C-alpha cells in the first residue's frame, strides 16, 4: 500500500501492461480459416440485391466482400442493397474490425470452420431444423407420445452427418429417442427436463421478484373465437416463395408479413397472457429480442438468492469453512462484494458480453459469412419449383422424408420461421447469442462453486393452470393454456417436462455446473427453434465464448493481490480450447484452474483435459 498517487498510478500501469503482454504478445495467435467456399450461392446475402431464384447477384456479393476488405465508409456505402429506401440494412459489418480493452484480441481465439455447403453435416443440420419447425408447438411434457416428435426421432436417428444427441459428436452413442431429441450434448444438458431451472425459476430482484413467464404468440387471428389445443399453436412465416424472396431482398417486414400476434387480455400489460417456457416456440420467443447476456444475469441472481457458494478458493471464509487456497484460511471478518462477491459476479457477466459479440462478429463477417438456414432451404425450394439451380446440395437432404412433410404442411420446402422477419441481417456462424451464452455461463461456472449440488427442493416445473382468454392483435380472441410452477418433488407429470425427466431430476445429482451447461445450451439452441441458426452455430459458439471468458477472467484476476490459487472451471469439452481435434463433451467433469498467467490442473485433482496453453 502507498499514499503516493504517482506510485499508485505506476502500479496500475504495470498491472495493465503485464495483462496486455500476456494476452497480446506472449499468447499464441490462432488464425481461423473458412471452408474456402466464397460465392453468392453458398454464402450469406440477405438484404443484398437478389436474382429471381433467391440468390444474391454476383455484383452485390462482391461489393460486400470488397467493403469488408477495405473497411472504409465509402466502401460500405457502395454495398449493393435492395433499392427500396426503407429496406433493411446490414447489422454492422464494420464491427468485425473492432478491438477490445480486456482479454484476448477478438481475432486471436480459435474457432473451427462450419460444415461446407455441400456436406452431409450441413444437410443434417437443415433436416434437424425442419424437424424442430414441425415440433415447435409440442409441449416438452408430451414428447414421449407426440407423433411429430416420433417422426423427428425416426428422421434423425442414424442420419449421415448428424452431430446431435446419439450422432457422431455424442460420446454416449446409442440410438436417439424422444427423451434426447433436440437436446445439447454437454454434461447436464440431457439430464432432467429439457429446460433449465434457471429459465423457469423466479428471479429474486429484491422486493420485486420477477417471473420468467413469456408472452404467448398465437396463430394469426381470424374473426370469432379461436380454438385452443393443449398449449395453442403459433404462427409460422416465410413459407410462401414470393414473401420469402421479398424478405431476402430486405423489403420491410411490415409490407411482407403481419406483426407477431401477441395474446393480450385487453391491452393491460399486467393482464397479458403469459406462461412459462413449455415449448420450443416459447424458448424461441424468450431469446428473440432479449439482450443476450440477460438470461445469465438472471441466473446469477437466482444462484445468489439460493445461497450457492462462490469458488472455494476465494480468499474469504464461506459458511464457516476456510478458503481452499493454499497457505491461507481466508478472511473471516468480512464478506466479498466488489472482488469475488455478488457485485463482482453481476458486473463480470455484463462486461464479458461485448468481447464475446466482437469475437462473433469477426467470424460472421470477415471469415465465414455462412448463409442463414432460410437461405439454404431457399436453394432446395428453388430447385424443387424450377426457379434455379441445380445447386450442389448434399444427398441426405434430397433423400430425407422431412422436407416432404414440410411441403405437405406449408406447400413449399422453405424453412418455416417463427419470427416474421426470419433471421437478422448478419451471417449465421457463429450464433451471437451462443457466443455470449458460452462466455457468460463460463464466468458463472468459474466464479461459483460449480460442483455444488443443485438442491432438489429448489427445482420446479411448469404445470397446467387453467386457461387464459385474450384478444389478438389482428382481431378475434383465443384461449391458451396457462401455467404455474410446482416443485418437482410434488408432481409426476407436467406440461413442461415428461414424467421420466421429472423422476431423473429427483433422483440424479445435478450440479450447478450441470444446470448452467443446460442454460447455455437452451440459449445457444433457442433461436434454432425459430429457424434462424444451425446446431453448429450454437455448439461451436459456446466453445468460442468459453475462450473469450477464460481470457477475460485471467485479466480480471489481476485486480486484487489477495492470495488466490485461481478459479476452477469445468470446460464444456474435454480439451481447452474445445476446438482441439478429437475433443468431445467433458463427460468426466474434469476441471482446469485459471490464474492470470497460466491454465493448469487444480491441485489434488486428476484431470484428463488436454490444455493447449503456451504459457503452461
Write down the overall geometry.
globular
N/C terminus separation: 30 Å
Strand-residue proportion = 5-15%
Question: What is the makeup of the main sheet?
Answer: 3 strands, antiparallel
Please estimate the helix content: 25-40%
Number of helical segments with 4 or more residues: 17
Spans of at least 5 consecutive residues whose pLDDT stays below 50 are 220-230
What does this 3D model show about the protein?
- By secondary structure, the chain is mostly helical.
- Helices cover 34% and strands 7% of the residues.
- The protein contains 17 helices and ten strands.
- It has a three-stranded antiparallel sheet, with no helix packed on it. A three-stranded antiparallel sheet has the order 6-8-9. Strands 1-3 form a two-stranded antiparallel sheet.
- The two termini are 30 Å apart.
- 52% of the residues are buried.
Short synopsis of the structure:
The protein is mainly α. The chain has helices spanning 5-25, 58-70, 73-77, 120-135, 147-156, 241-248, 280-286, 294-306, 342-351, 353-368, 373-385, 395-399, 402-410, 432-447, 499-507, 512-526, 535-556, and strands at 214-215, 263-264, 274-275, 460-472, 477-487, 567-569, 575-576, 592-594, 599-600, 610-611.
Search tags:
mainly alpha, 3-stranded antiparallel sheet, 17 helices, 34% helix, 7% strand
Outline the secondary-structure elements.
Elements lengths: L4 H21 L32 H13 L2 H5 L42 H16 L11 H10 L57 E2 L25 H8 L14 E2 L9 E2 L4 H7 L7 H13 L35 H10 L1 H16 L4 H13 L9 H5 L2 H9 L21 H16 L12 E13 L4 E11 L11 H9 L4 H15 L8 H22 L10 E3 L5 E2 L15 E3 L4 E2 L9 E2 L5
Parallel strand pairs: 7-10
Antiparallel strand pairs: 1-3, 2-4, 4-5, 6-8, 8-9
Helix pairs in contact: 4-5, 8-9, 8-14, 9-14, 10-14, 10-17, 14-16, 14-17, 16-17
Amino acid at each position: 500500500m502507498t499514499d503516493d498517487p504517482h506510485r499508485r498510478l505506476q502500479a496500475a500501469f504495470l498491472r495493465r501492461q503485464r495483462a496486455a503482454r500476456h494476452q497480446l504478445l506472449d499468447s499464441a495467435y490462432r488464425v481461423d480459416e473458412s471452408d474456402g467456399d466464397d460465392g453468392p450461392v453458398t454464402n450469406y446475402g440477405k438484404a443484398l440485391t437478389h436474382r429471381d431464384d433467391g440468390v444474391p447477384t454476383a455484383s452485390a456479393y462482391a461489393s460486400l466482400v470488397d467493403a469488408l476488405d477495405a473497411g472504409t465508409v465509402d466502401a460500405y456505402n457502395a454495398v449493393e442493397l435492395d433499392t427500396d429506401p426503407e429496406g433493411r440494412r446490414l447489422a454492422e459489418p464494420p464491427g468485425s474490425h473492432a478491438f477490445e480493452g480486456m482479454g484476448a484480441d477478438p481475432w486471436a481465439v480459435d474457432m473451427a470452420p462450419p460444415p461446407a455447403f455441400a456436406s452431409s453435416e450441413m444437410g443434417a443440420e437443415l433436416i434437424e431444423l425442419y424437424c424442430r419447425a414441425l415440433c415447435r408447438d409440442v409441449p416438452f411434457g408430451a414428447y414421449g407420445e407426440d407423433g411429430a416428435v416420433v417422426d423427428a426421432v425416426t428422421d434423425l436417428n442414424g442420419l449421415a452427418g448428424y452431430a446431435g444427441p446419439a450422432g457422431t459428436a455424442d460420446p454416449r452413442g446409442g440410438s436417439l429417442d424422444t427423451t434426447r431429441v433436440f437436446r445439447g450434448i454437454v454434461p447436464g444438458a440431457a439430464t432432467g427436463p429439457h429446460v433449465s431451472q434457471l429459465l423457469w425459476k423466479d428471479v429474486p430482484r429484491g422486493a420485486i421478484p420477477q417471473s420468467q413467464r413469456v408472452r404467448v404468440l398465437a396463430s394469426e387471428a381470424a374473426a370469432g373465437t379461436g380454438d385452443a389445443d393443449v398449449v395453442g399453436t403459433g404462427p409460422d412465416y416465410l413459407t410462401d416463395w414470393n414473401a420469402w424472396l421479398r424478405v431476402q431482398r430486405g423489403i420491410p417486414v411490415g409490407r411482407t408479413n403481419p406483426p407477431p400476434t401477441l395474446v393480450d387480455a385487453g391491452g393491460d400489460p399486467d393482464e397479458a397472457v403469459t406462461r412459462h417456457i413449455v415449448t420450443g416456440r416459447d424458448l424461441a420467443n424468450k431469446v428473440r429480442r432479449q439482450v443476450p447476456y440477460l438470461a445469465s444475469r438472471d441466473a446469477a441472481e437466482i444462484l445468489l438468492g439460493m445461497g450457492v457458494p462462490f469458488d472455494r478458493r476465494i480468499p474469504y471464509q464461506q459458511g464457516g469453512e476456510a478458503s481452499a487456497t493454499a497457505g491461507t484460511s481466508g478472511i473471516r471478518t468480512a464478506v466479498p462484494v466488489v472482488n469475488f462477491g455478488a457485485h463482482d459476479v453481476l458486473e463480470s457477466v455484463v462486461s464479458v458480453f461485448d468481447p464475446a459479440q466482437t469475437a462473433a462478429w469477426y467470424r460472421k463477417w470477415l471469415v465465414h459469412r455462412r448463409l442463414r438456414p432460410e437461405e439454404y432451404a431457399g436453394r432446395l425450394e428453388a430447385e424443387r419449383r424450377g426457379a434455379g439451380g441445380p445447386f450442389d446440395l448434399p444427398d441426405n437432404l434430397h433423400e430425407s422424408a422431412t422436407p416432404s412433410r414440410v411441403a405437405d404442411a406449408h406447400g413449399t420446402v422453405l424453412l418455416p420461421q417463427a419470427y416474421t422477419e426470419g433471421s437478422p441481417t448478419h451471417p449465421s456462424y457463429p450464433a451471437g447469442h451462443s457466443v455470449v451464452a458460452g462466455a457468460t455461463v463460463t464466468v458463472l461456472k468459474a466464479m461459483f462453486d460449480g460442483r455444488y449440488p443443485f438442491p432438489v427442493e429448489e427445482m420446479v416445473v411448469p404445470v397446467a393452470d387453467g386457461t387464459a382468454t385474450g384478444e389478438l392483435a389482428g382481431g378475434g380472441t383465443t384461449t391458451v393454456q396457462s401455467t404455474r410452477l410446482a416443485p418437482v418433488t410434488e408432481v409426476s407429470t407436467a406440461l413442461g417436462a415428461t414424467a421420466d425427466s421429472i423422476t431423473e431430476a429427483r433422483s440424479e445429482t445435478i450440479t450447478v455446473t450441470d444446470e448452467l451447461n443446460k442454460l447455455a445450451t437452451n440459449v445457444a439452441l433457442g433461436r434454432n427453434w425459430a429457424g434462424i441458426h444451425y446446431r453448429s452455430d450454437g455448439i461451436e459458439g459456446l466453445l468460442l465464448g468459453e475462450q473469450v471468458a477464460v481470457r477475460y477472467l485471467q485479466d480480471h484476476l489481476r485486480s486484487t493481490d489477495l492470495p488466490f490459487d485461481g478459479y476452477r472451471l469445468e470446460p464444456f469439452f474435454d480439451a481447452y480450447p474445445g476446438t482441439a481435434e478429437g475433443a468431445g463433451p467433458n463427460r468426466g467433469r474434469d476441471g482446469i484452474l485459471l490464474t492470470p498467467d497460466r491454465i493448469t490442473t487444480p491441485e489434488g485433482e486428476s484431470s484428463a483435459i488436454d490444455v493447449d496453453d503456451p504459457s503452461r
